[in-house]
Amino acid sequence: MLFRTITKEHFRKLVNGIINENQTIGPKAVDMDAKGNPVYQFVEVSDFDEMNLEYPTTYSSAKHYFLPFKENLSTFEFEKKGWKQKITYNAEPRVIVGLRAFDINGLLKLDNVLMKEKFPNPYYITKRKNTFIIGIDHEAPDDCFARSLNADVVLHGFDMFMTDIGDKYFLLINSSNAFNVLKNVTTEEITRKDEERYIAKKKKIENSYKTVVDVTGLPSLLDIEFESDVWKKWGDKCLSCGSCAMVCPTCYCYTVNESIDPSLKFGVKERMLYSCNIVDFAEVAGGHNFRPKASTRLKYRYYHQHRGFVESYDEPKCVGCNRCGRACPAGINPVDVIHDLRMEGGR
Ligand code: SF4
Ligand code: SF4
Questions:
Q1: pLDDT tens-digit profile of 117-136?
Q2: Distance 84 CA to ligand 2 centre (A)
Q3: Does the pLDDT of residue 346 top 90, yes or no?
Q4: Which atom of ligand 2 lies nearest, measured to the CA of 275?
Q5: pLDDT digit string (tens) for 62-118?
Q6: pTM for this one?
């Protein structure tokens, strides 16, 4: 890792240069909520000034640039004596500007599952390897609990990571691509004053986390509270809409659909993101549903986030962004659910 500083004006020029050459995605206000506050999303931008790097949070994560809602896995052409399959993994180089530390940590969790397991996902890997990531620090939104899950700081999984230290950014340079890109613009050696301002800013960010979720021993607590009424209390409110999983940076459940053109000459196999909260998630051939109740499905979502994933990777799947809590039309959020479990368990 190398450390430099860059003035805000030089960074702006750098990003505008990148935008001219590559697809560039950044946080942009795309709508207003009911209270008149801007709603931010990661969308393609054509100028630096379209982005707001001071955004509090985006409604959805940037996961969809790596795991699209709908993705073509392969196409088929049927011939007289057989059939041909076509599979394409191509991904054009692109840049995402402005990811927060917890969102980069979310990508690292997806990497564990989709890049490092026995059966890596080539569609994900191509997109991940062709995406240049510029992260940026920011103080936490009020309901974000990323610090409770150690997801507020990130040390890898990005090309560059910036911290605003006043008139310039403190830069962590983490890839040869980033090193080469920065040759096109003026950067400076770190001074003693820069270090002091960086440490003070990091402290301020650390102290900005107001929402705390106690996850100590949570996997064991979940084991003990498997039959708890807490699941019924929250599960009975659940509308099984799946919004929580769609906005989540780490949910990767999917379904696969195969369809054949009425001419019987072509076919396509597509993968679609899905949610374990949706009513037919655990339905199998013959119509039997292993999780017919909303409360059971909600419970298993929490078990995957905070128990199953810990067993496989020694860390929870959740990064504490609380996007699921904000998106839920029924007011279900991890802060309250985990709090209730702790109360139930007397811990
Ligand atoms: S807080 Fe919710 S949306 Fe964010 S990572 Fe955890 S489960 Fe996913
Ligand atoms: S967003 Fe809320 S209501 Fe919808 S599936 Fe998730 S927990 Fe249930």
A1: 999 999 999 999 999 999 99
A2: 41
A3: no
A4: 5
A5: 999 999 999 999 999 988 888 899 998 888 899 999 999 999 999 999 999 999 999
A6: 0.95
* Claim to verify: residue 92 and residue 190 sit in the same structural domain: yes
**Is 201 inside any structural domain?**
yes
Same domain (yes/no): 103, 239: no
**Residue 49's pLDDT band (boundaries 50, 70, 90)?**
very high
Q: Is the separation of the CB atoms in 42 and 30 below 8 Å?
A: no
272 domain residue, yes or no? no
Domain that holds residue 230: 218-251+277-342
Q: Is the pLDDT of residue 303 over 60?
A: yes
Assess whether the C-beta atom of 278 lies below 6 angstroms from ligand 2.
no
Closest residue (by CA) to atom 2 of ligand 2?
A: 328
Q: What whole-number distance in Å separates Cα of residue 198 and Cα of residue 245? A: 35
Q: Is 244 in the pocket of ligand 2 (CB under 6 A)?
A: yes
List strand residue ranges (DSSP E) for the chain, in order: 2-7, 23-32, 38-44, 70-79, 82-86, 94-99, 131-136, 160-164, 168-173, 254-260, 266-273
For residues 133 and 237, membership in a common domain is answered with no
Domain count, the chain: 2
Provide the pLDDT for residue 264: 87
Q: How many residues does the chain have?
A: 347
Q: How far is the CA of 4 from the centre of ligand 1 (A)?
A: 32
Between the CA of 252 and the centroid of ligand 2 the distance, in Å, is 16
Instruction: Tokens for 236, please give them.
Output: 């009975």
Smallest CA separation from ligand 1 atom 6, residue: 318
